[in-house]
Amino acid sequence: MDFVKFGNKYVLRLDKGEEIVETLKEFCTQQGIKLGWIKGIGAVGEATIGLFETKEKEYHSVDLKGDYEITSLLGNISTMNGETYLHLHATLGDSEYNVQGGHFSRGVISATGEFVIESIEGEIDRKFDQEIGLNLYKFK
């Protein structure tokens, strides 16, 4: 991974073999980014995407293997219990030009990944909401 910073924006390149979520989370922690946005494109050879089932209050995920283009990865940065928390969604295109998407929990770069992180001054924590079944923004 390599990056350059412009004001409150970071432009990152992830390299073949790097796991996206852990790499971005570690980067945000190292840079002290506690609130912000992530967007990116690239290529993965493995990925895990999911859908939150509201009635069951749980994620159902699928593991994808093969050549996939990240046509869009979007997400936000916050904190939970003092640690960096990323909430990411992605659409992934396959060799048949079909797209699958959902909550993005894992992906391994197969060629390259290009990401922009915009840091927002401040901090918003999350708290698990029993009724909904998700970690929601916690405003004071």
- Second CATH tier, the architecture: 2-Layer Sandwich
CATH level 3 topology: 60s Ribosomal Protein L30, Chain: A
Note the gap between the termini. 35 Å
Domains (count): 1
Number of helices: 1
**Helicity range of the residues?**
under 10%
Look at the helices and sheets and give the structural class.
mainly beta
Rg (C-alpha, Å): 15 Å
**How does the major sheet shape up?**
6 strands, antiparallel
Low-confidence stretches: none
CATH class: Alpha Beta
* Mean pLDDT across all amino acids: 97
What amount of the residues lies in strands?
Answer: over 45%
SSE series: EEHEEEEEE
Tertiary shape: flat
**What is the β-strand count?**
8
Write the CATH homologous superfamily. Hypothetical protein, similar to alpha- acetolactate decarboxylase, domain 2
Task: Output the keywords.
60s Ribosomal Protein L30, Chain: A, 140 residues, mainly beta, single chain, 1 helix, 6-stranded antiparallel sheet, two-stranded antiparallel ribbon
